Amino acid sequence: MKINGTPYRSVWVNEKDGWSVHIFDQTRLPFALDVLQLTTPEQVAHAIKTMQVRGAPLIGAVAAYGLALALRTDSSDNALEQQAAMLAATRPTAINLRWAIERMLTHLRPLTPAERVAAAYAEAGRICDEDAAQNEAIGQHGLELLRTLAAQRGKNDKINILTHCNAGWIATVDWGTALAPIYMAHDEGLNVHVWVDETRPRNQGAALTAWELGSHGVPHTVIADNAGGHLMQHGLVDIVIVGTDRVTRNADVANKIGTYLKALAARDNGVPFWVALPSTTIDWQVADGVREIPIEERSGTEITHISGRDDNGQISRVQITPDGSTAANPAFDVTPARLVTGLITEKGCCAATPEGLLSLFPEQG
Ligand SMILES: CSC[C@H]1O[C@H](OP(=O)(O)O)[C@H](O)[C@@H]1O
């Protein structure tokens, strides 16, 4: 996507040295666009754990480059396995991380140590190119949904879309998943407006989705997470589109904490609830998401403290709870397939059912 007219991806190899890896430090957005240069697998692991880089497809792509960086130092079998395990363990919920590492291992294990570095960079590059292409296709299929909504009402009537967390281009290599159809609809001239859940506690909506949409000129309004149900009750939400970190073969959906509550409100108010995902986010080995998907527990300090820009223009962090209060911080929840209207994938849209998924991916049957 473009930032001030310049096209960017969310991860890229430094063209000056040909091997170090660049990402945006997403903990500094929306107030600073800082590029981080990663030169070691440990730096990659730290960036993923601290959410300097986040978003299911993007952490998989960056971890793939982390393995390439590791092999520059030691491309032995032991190093390959150990570094892969270290990177895969950085965050437990997004299946893309494990998928990307497994793909790299499958590609690299048969090679000699001398062949591995170049092959690792090439495979990580293919993972990035495929993600960008898949997300563009998701955008096209999701655009059809928005065109249908627009056709059902007056051409210039506003289409109000609610989204949760950030599933935009900065959460992927490019285009995003939930936001890809929105960008395309806006660029096509459809009158779209986005309700942006702030998405406590890390505020990926308020800080990242609002920044993305504002940078692209897409009308949007940031709301408290708890406001979505009220807006739906008053007919102010036409469709919910969210991203996901893992979808099971039964079409249960793991996503940022609070997604399940949004789906319940949508069902209660007859609002279509769609989930956008590349096939790399489908975990075909898992059926029951509520029971089987590991939910990341993050530090309670993400609840007890919040960061932002103060009146002096400085980024500062403040405590918002009493000393001594404990905090629990599950980072994801699972929305059962029964609450999901449908899935938007690079192969098309389908019902949130095992049959729906297999209709798009028959090879998994
Ligand atoms: C396009 S995947 C985006 C997905 O990832 C986010 O999680 P996190 O910010 O913790 O990496 C969130 O669940 C988004 O829906």
UniProtKB/TrEMBL annotation:
Keywords, comma-separated and alphabetical: Amino-acid biosynthesis, Isomerase, Methionine biosynthesis
Pathway recorded for this protein: Amino-acid biosynthesis; L-methionine biosynthesis via salvage pathway; L-methionine from S-methyl-5-thio-alpha-D-ribose 1-phosphate: step 1/6
Cleavable signal peptide: none
Catalysed transformations (reactions): 5-deoxy-alpha-D-ribose 1-phosphate = 5-deoxy-D-ribulose 1-phosphate; 5-(methylsulfanyl)-alpha-D-ribose 1-phosphate = 5-(methylsulfanyl)-D-ribulose 1-phosphate
Residues where substrate binds: 54-56, 91, 204, 255-256
EC number: 5.3.1.23
Catalytic residues, chain numbering: 245
TM ranges: none
A GO biological process held by the record: L-methionine salvage from methylthioadenosine
Gene Ontology terms for molecular function: S-methyl-5-thioribose-1-phosphate isomerase activity
Residues with site note (Transition state stabilizer): 165
Pfam family, one: IF-2B
Principal EC category: isomerase
Family the entry assigns: Belongs to the EIF-2B alpha/beta/delta subunits family. MtnA subfamily.
Function: Catalyzes the interconversion of methylthioribose-1-phosphate (MTR-1-P) into methylthioribulose-1-phosphate (MTRu-1-P). Also catalyzes the interconversion of 5-deoxyribose 1-phosphate and 5-deoxyribulose 1-phosphate. Part of a bifunctional DHAP-shunt salvage pathway for SAM by-products.
Cited PANTHER family: METHYLTHIORIBOSE-1-PHOSPHATE ISOMERASE
Protein name: Methylthioribose-1-phosphate isomerase
Organism: Acetobacter okinawensis
